[in-house]
Fold this sequence. Notes:
mainly alpha, 5 helices, globular
Amino acid sequence: MTRKARDLAVLFATLMLFWLLLGGGFAADSLLVGALAALLIALLFHDGLSFFTELRPTPRALAAGVFYYGYFFRELLRSNLRMAAIVLSPALPISPGIVRVRTRLKSRMGRLMLANSITLTPGTLTVEIDGEWLYVHCVTLEPGDTEAATAAIATGFERYLEVMYG
């Protein structure tokens, strides 16, 4: 099987799995619709839509993936609690701003995963990716503290994504 055919098969399988997870069910009509949609998307986006596209298939990268998800869920919980405290505070202590974060990740998929991880963490939103720079909106950003914000936002995620994607 050629690399292109393998990538197409992986993308199709990923999309079908996503379809089933969304509750498509195992009824014949549901599977047919899911398969047609997955095939159409896989053919239209054959250059890659799957997060497996640039993943390094090494044991070290797979282990980093497990630790990445552990880190992500820990950060998700911490930021949810932080945002809840801000919202419940009568003073509503926010100081929004946009910080420019430099990433050391080289692959497109690694940068995309970093941007999505930042966006999925409450209190931060990746506004733009421009080469090695990510522009991130933060709900609480202390003035003049962009270096610390950069380290707090990206460094933890990058540690794992760099092993996974480069």
